[in-house]
Amino acid sequence: MTAELAGRTALVTGATSGIGKAAALKLAEYGATVLVHGRDTARGTAVVDQIEQAGGKSRFVGADLSNPDEVAQLAAEVGPVDILVNNAGSSWFGPSSELTVATYDRLFDGNVRSAYLLTAALAPEMARNGGGTIINVGSMVGRVGLSGGAAYSATKAALEAMTRSWAVEYGADHVRVNVVAPGPVYTDGSVPERTTALGNTTLLNRAAQPEEIAETIAFLASPRADYITGATIAVDGGRTAV
Ligand SMILES: NC(=O)c1ccc[n+]([C@@H]2O[C@H](COP(=O)([O-])OP(=O)(O)OC[C@H]3O[C@@H](n4cnc5c(N)ncnc54)[C@H](OP(=O)(O)O)[C@@H]3O)[C@@H](O)[C@H]2O)c1
């Protein structure tokens, strides 16, 4: 266990499950105090317990990020953070003609607006405090087309575009902003058969475990990535390389 993030506070959204949970555990292992965010208090508390049992520091913060008032409340409640991981999100795949307006709004409110509002609320304080780092969890579908994924893909492409603009806006104040773009990952939010099938289309011929994505998130949060900003790092078994 290295303590390269000792003294830093990290907020990980959607840390009750999957990639966010793995990122929270990894950042805590590196010494950060981790604010575990989600909607499900029981699952959030279980992640906090796991971190504390391993000797780390953590607490749960609840909010439905599709509600702008709750995003503002969350930002106020957590106070200044050094590391923000905008991970919470959901997907929908199916014929575009069958996507309802409510689902379209859920995707954009939960995946895009939430990250926008949280970053806008927390990045200025990072800047005033001398710097920080923001990691947005995108997806390979922000770059490649998958049938039935038009709206979800657009939310991830939007995150990449916002990331580049934020890298410009906050770079001079030493706030680094990057995207980690996973390929298929086995999580509660993914359908196992679909994940396996997609994994078989990658150069490595398999899907990933959440911990493999968390490694890159933790690297980008660390001083070892001090010269990386405005980048999208693909962690997709090479799927977007060809
Ligand atoms: N799994 C994949 O194959 C894959 C691939 C590429 C990218 N991604 C991206 O990676 C991220 C995490 O995905 P995952 O597969 O790990 O998902 P997951 O297991 O379904 O977990 C999603 C997390 O996000 C939280 N969340 C979702 N909507 C929320 C909202 N409106 N307000 C507050 N919290 C919300 C959930 O909180 P509660 O459960 O507490 O409500 C949960 O902690 C997402 O952005 C996803 O698009 C996933």
From TrEMBL:
It comes from the Bacteria. Keywords: Oxidoreductase. Coiled coil: none annotated. Residues 8-188 form the Ketoreductase domain. SMART domains: PKS_KR (SM00822). InterPro entries: KR_dom, NAD(P)-bd_dom_sf, Sc_DH/Rdtase_CS, SDR_fam. Pfam families: adh_short_C2. GO terms for molecular function: oxidoreductase activity. PANTHER family: OXIDOREDUCTASE, SHORT-CHAIN DEHYDROGENASE/REDUCTASE FAMILY (AFU_ORTHOLOGUE AFUA_5G02870), SHORT-CHAIN DEHYDROGENASE_REDUCTASE FAMILY PROTEIN. Belongs to the short-chain dehydrogenases/reductases (SDR) family. This is NAD(P)-dependent dehydrogenase (Short-subunit alcohol dehydrogenase family).
